[in-house]
Amino acid sequence: MDVRMGSTGKFFVGGNWKANGTKESVSKLVSGLNSAEITSDVEVIVAPIFLHLPYVVDHIDSRYQVSAQNCWVGRAGAYTGEIAPEQLADMSIPWVILGHSERRSLLKESNDFVGAKAANALAHGLKVIACIGETLEQRESGQMYDVLEGQLKGVADSVSSWEDVVVAYEPVWAIGTGKVATPEQAQEVHAYIRKWLGDKVSQDVSSATRIIYGGSVNDQNAAELANKEDVDGFLVGGASLKADAFATICNARAKVPA
Ligand SMILES: O=C(CO)COP(=O)(O)O
Fold first, then answer.
1. How does it associate, per the subunit comment (predicted)?
2. In what helix (H) or strand (E) does residue 114 lie, and over which residues does it extend?
3. According to CATH, what is the number of the domain 11-255?
4. Per-residue pLDDT at 248 exceeds 90
5. Phi, psi at residue 140, to the nearest 5°?
6. Most buried pick, 5, 28, 112, 149, via CB within 10 A?
C-alpha cells in the first residue's frame, strides 16, 4: 500500500461541519466521536464553525485535531468580521480549510486570494487543507484541467513549503449532491494533481503531499475510493455530522487489504 509521507504519513480524514450545528448537536456529536472506534493509522480533523471551536477544542478526545473553515489573509487588526491565523493558533487550533468551493463561488474568493491566505496561514504556524475542484459545466466543456491548474497555481505561487499542506480535490458537482465521483474519476484527477506537483513544484512534494477526495463521501462508498492509489484520505461534509458514519469513513483505508 502506497502511503504518503505528509507530516505524519497517515491517511487523512477531515470532517467539514460547514455552517451546521447548535450547542446541543455539537455536544452530542463530540461525545459520539469520543466514544467512536477509530484506527490509529488515520489522522482525523474536525472543522466546526468559529463559535464552536473553543468548545470542541476543550471537549474532543486528543485523537482528533481541530480545524477552522477559513481565516483572514493578513495579520490581526482592523478587519471587521475576520479572524487571523495567529488568533486561531493562540486558541490551539492547528488546521484551517481554505479555498472551499462554497467560498470560491459564494464569496468570490479568487485563486490568488486563496494562495495568499494559505501562505499567511502557514507563516503563522497553521496547517492548511487547500481545496480545489471543477464545476460540472467546466468538466463537460473540457475546461477541467485548466481550472484545476489555475487553482493549484494560485497555491503554488504563494506557498514555499508544502510540508503542512493537504490538497483536497472536491468536484463541485459532487458536493452535497449525493453524486459521488467514481473511484476511477477520483483517481484520474488525483494522479493529475500528483503529476502537476511533480512537474511544477518538486518530486518530493509530489510524493509527500496527501491528496484527499471530497464530495458525497459516505460510509457506503468510502472503502472503494480509499482503495485507489492516489486517494490519501477524504474531506467529508454531510456524513461527518454523524459520528458512526464518520468513524466508518475514517476506518475506510484500514479495511482495504494491503
Ligand atoms: O464540501 C464537502 C467537504 O468539504 C463535501 O460535502 P458533502 O460530503 O456533504 O458532499
1. Homodimer.
2. helix 111-123
3. 3.20.20.70
4. yes
5. -70, -25
6. 149
